[in-house]
Amino acid sequence: MAVFSRAIASLALMFLLFNSFSEAKELLVGGSSDAWKIPKSSQSYSLNDWAADHRFLTGDYLVWKYDSNEDSVLQVTRESYLKCNTSDPIAAYKDGNTKVKLDHSGPFYFISGAAGHCEKGQKLIVVVLSSRHRLFAISPAPAPAEYDGPAVAPTSSATSLQSSVLVSFAVLVWVAMM
Length: 178
What we know:
Distance between the termini: 11 Å
Largest sheet: 5 strands, mixed
Helix content: 25-40%
Structural class: alpha/beta
Oligomer: single chain
Strand content: 15-25%
Order of helices and strands: HEHEEEHEEEEH
Shape: elongated
Strand order of the largest sheet: 2-8-7-4-5
């Protein structure tokens, strides 16, 4: 009976561990409330550099903080992103505290709605992984060069998570057999 209790406790612990990995996150674009602005130079850390350093999953939210009297956020197509075309956005946000749900996998394109800002580099591409990547977070291939956006580098987190799952499973089997 003690073996059965330990196995149930182990399963409950593993469920809680995996459940914590599957919660949606709110990510402040650029990591700060003043990041949605024209980059200081083409050599500086851009929003696409920030995006390349993060993993985005379906269900996560992007949050922008900006002065609504001076700027806005436009969600656009790839073509509009590349041409900085603000005339036909998928969605336009002008409230200064924008929250966008990443509701599907694939690339999302955002540009500034302020005249001339996109052309000066105020734009963002976010590549969203599907929900099936929640447990085994495998990095996508780098973005093609024509995306003009972040190349998402592979991380070691997928390997360490997979190792943790295998070790946990092995311990659970060992405990059940005792």
